[in-house]
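Hi U.,

Before I forget, here's the chain from the pilot set. I'm dumping it here mostly so it's searchable later in email.
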Amino acid sequence: MNALNEALVTAHARSVNVLTVNNPSPDFSGPGVSALQSIANVVFAIVLTLGVIGGLIAAGFIVVGHISSNGRVQKMGIVGVVSCVAGVAVAAGIAGLINWGQSLHVA
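Structure:
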C-alpha cells in the first residue's frame, strides 16, 4: 500500500509540473505604441465605413432576392451581412486589445 501511495504522489507531482503554465507579463509601454494606436484607429474607421456600405449593399441583395423569389441571391446577401458584421467585430476587437494592453502598467 505504501508503494502505491508513493507512486500516486509521484505521478500527481509530475502531472502538476506538466500542467503548470508560467504567467507571461507583456510590456505594452514601449516606443511606438501610440503610433500603433493611431494606425488601429484609422483602420477601424475605414473598416467600419466599408462594413456599413457593404452591409447596405448586402441588405439590398436580401430584399431583391426575396422580392424576385431567388433564394440564391437572398442567401448571398445574408452571407454578405454576416461577413460585414464579423469584419467590423474583428476590427473593433483589435482596437480594444491595444487599449487593454496600454492599461496594463506591467513594468
